Amino acid sequence: MVRFISVCLGLRLWFVCIIIGIWKLLKQKGAGWMDIRVGDVLELKKQHPCGSRNWLVLRVGMDFRLRCQGCGHELMIPRSKAEKSVKKIKRSEEAQP
Ligand SMILES: [Zn+2]
């Protein structure tokens, strides 16, 4: 038991680091979480070279797969990056509960 406690104390710094890391991650998630679904059209802050700002969501997960509505270009970007650059979510089905 004493050994266990000393190990715990030795790892305390690590625990604090990990807890802070998780807490920050959760906080970030909570603040920036967006309800983005397949079929949604995202209006991004940054304009694509073709002139369009609208991207159709083809797949969601850790990464988003988006298709440019202007030129049809497809790309994968990490969720965090996508959420930061989204200006507006346009959902075709307005009658969602
Ligand atoms: Zn484009």
Overview of the molecule:
By secondary structure, the chain is of the alpha+beta class. It folds into two domains: 2-32; 41-90, no CATH class. 38% of the residues lie in helices and 27% in strands. It has helices at residues 2-10, 12-32, 79-85, and strands at 41-44, 54-59, 63-68, 74-78, 86-90. It has a five-stranded antiparallel sheet with strand order 4-3-2-1-5. The longest helix has 21 residues, at 12-32. It binds zinc ion. Zinc ion binds at residues 48, 50, 52, 68, 70-71, 73.
Fold topology:
Elements: H1 2-10, H2 12-32, E1 41-44, E2 54-59, E3 63-68, E4 74-78, H3 79-85, E5 86-90
Antiparallel strand pairs: 1-2, 1-5, 2-3, 3-4
Ligands bound to this protein structure: zinc ion
Question: Sheet bearing the most strands, described?
Answer: 5 strands, antiparallel
Radius of gyration: 20 Å
Average pLDDT value? Answer: 84
Strand-residue fraction?
Answer: 25-35%
Total individual domains? 2
Helical/strand content category: alpha+beta
In N-to-C order, the SSE pattern is HHEEEEHE
Which strands sit side by side, in order, in the main sheet? 4-3-2-1-5
Strands, total number: 5
Assembly state of the chains shown = single chain
Q: Which term fits the overall shape?
A: rod-shaped
- Unreliable stretches, pLDDT < 50, 5 or more residues? none
| N-end to C-end Cα span | 54 Å
Helix content: 25-40%
| Count of runs of 4 or more consecutive helical residues | 3
